[in-house]
Amino acid sequence: MILETIKAKAEAYYSDVQEIRHHIHSHPELSFKEYNTSAYVAAKLTEFGIPDFRSIAGTGIVALIEGNNPEKRCIALRSDLDALPIKEENTASYCSKNDGVMHACGHDVHTSCLLGAARILHDLRHEWEGTVKLIFQPGEEKHPGGASIMIAEGVLENPKPDAIFALHVYPHLPAGTTGFRAGQYMASADEVYITIEGKGGHAALPHQTIDPIAISALVITGLQQVIARKCNPLIPSVLTFGSINGGFATNVIPDKVEILGTFRAMDEKWRYEAHKWIKEFTEQTCAAYGAKATVEIPVGYPMLFNDPALTRNATKWAEDYVGADNVHELDMRMAAEDFSFYTLHVPGCFFRIGTNKDDKEFLAPVHNARFDINEESMKTGMGMMAWCAVQALQNG
Hints:
Oligomer: single chain
Structural class: alpha/beta
Largest sheet: 8 strands, mixed
Radius of gyration: 23 Å
Strand order of the largest sheet: 1-2-4-3-5-16-6-15
Order of helices and strands: HHHEEEHEHEEEEEHEEEHEEHEHEH
Strand content: 15-25%
Helix content: 25-40%
CATH architecture of the largest domain: 3-Layer(aba) Sandwich
CATH topology of the largest domain: Aminopeptidase
CATH superfamily of the largest domain: Zn peptidases
Number of helices: 10
Shape: elongated
Distance between the termini: 19 Å
Number of strands: 16
């Protein structure tokens, strides 16, 4: 039975996948600069006997594994390669060797699991029909998202996948468990850049200035009210500012303040209405005090929508793989993922693997300097990716 064979191979390859993860974790690279990581993935594909791969989108890689009757159906599996600009605070032997850069979101785990799944699927290629497309993607953490670039460069063509899967680490669940949510799962994400230009001068003579710091306070607090009062309360929506830069002394009013933020929404119509309200409110508030506002809101990642039928099937396959008690329904999240770009073109399922140990260890959240995982979770990760691919090929 192929299920038991996949489980056995995930167990057999576990130590190798650990070694892969340790190497990638020790050598993290920022978005769109994953040169060594990409070369390492290519070397591993070659080592596994998977020669049909090519570079795409700079540091991305796309590979094909053909089973029997390869033109029958195609399923894609995706992982991400990039790390974050965070200084790691863990003390494990495999800690980051690149100062100020860390795999704090688990992309090293995702890539290791996909390489493990690739090896399993290649071993078993005579036991399934169709083609599996492996997507190793750069730049998930940085606008405009590596997924959008890979799609523009044809990653979903020749052949076009009938469905696509990706996994993500989840420290809120223990290793050996999985999580799914059909339909709407994660929010859209747009960056907000505001520049307020006033008139600087002496802090003791504010009447002779146009104070952009005071105006920025009005803008930030006012925009929270705009979002709260203009949005249908049934639609989740978040506007958060993460950076304010302006001024350099206690007794000087500066000429300019720059504000950086993010806007998240669970409704595409409201998303673009909100862009308009943010821009208009900011410009009009600044104008009322004699200042000038420049507002830029580059469109980022769309909402992530898990295909309901595919996700229901994947949930059943997970129950077969890890047991029904170890499969959980996930809550919607205001975080974003550029996997959502793929789901605009093909049915997709983005699921989670638990990574803590007995709900007692490895509990640090992602994007945290102390994030790490119980590596036993990678057995589930690589096995589930291989199992979902085989099942989707057979049951499409």
